[in-house]
Amino acid sequence: MPPGAHLVYFPSSSNEFELSPDGYLADEAPPKPFEQRVWAGGLMEFNPANPLRVGDLTSQTKRVENVTIKERAGADPLVLVKLALRMNNSRGACATEYRDLAYMKPIDLGRKIVKHNRQPDFVHKMTPSEILLFRYSALSWNSHRIHYDSVYACQVEHHPGLLVHGPLTCTLLLQFLHANMPEKMTLRSFDYRAISPMYCQQELHLNGRWLQTTQSEQDGSTADGTRRCELWATNNEGGIAMKGVATLVPLA
What we know:
By secondary structure, this protein is mostly beta strands. The chain is about 10% helix and about 40% strand. The chain has 3 helices and 9 strands. It is globular. GO terms for molecular function: (3R)-hydroxyacyl-[acyl-carrier-protein] dehydratase activity. This is Thioesterase/thiol ester dehydrase-isomerase.
């Protein structure tokens, strides 16, 4: 299975009455007043020797690694929650995901326009639709209302439209990398951060750039064949919505 597919294969077993008013999992939320939440980023680590495979019986365990309060000058504090999700099959560890969630008092989330001064090596343009967001919500069992309930997203959380899921953006970047993957390479890790929201029916760009180090060969690989690729998604205003670095290794 391609890297990132685990996001849709271990759905929550929570019943509707166990959800928060915003439709998301209540057991991942701190108490009031920190009721507004965002997916802030994370780290995905994959085991190239034991990937997730169709037909394998695989389990996922989830635990809260830590909860911290981040004080901010001139603003209310944030509650930062780090989750660790570990996937194992009969042969051992397949993948680990460290997921960073941020919780805050309800505010009007403004979009930061942070430009990237790098030129990509490959680009793909697309416009996320309501159907795409609905299908991803259904596949990932994500009932957070900001992704499918436009009245809630606009009138309650004061967004200009439906939000593109953080994990959907991450998945699109991983699929984009997969389409441009060098032969006989596989993904070992993807470390990423969400910078600014993206909205439905607004064009986005997926960008990739191969990184080189002082020890790199001409193709950007190191002595052991490892390659690193910078990936980022930009919104319709040209600002970075998500960015990260993927590490690739040769297939065994």
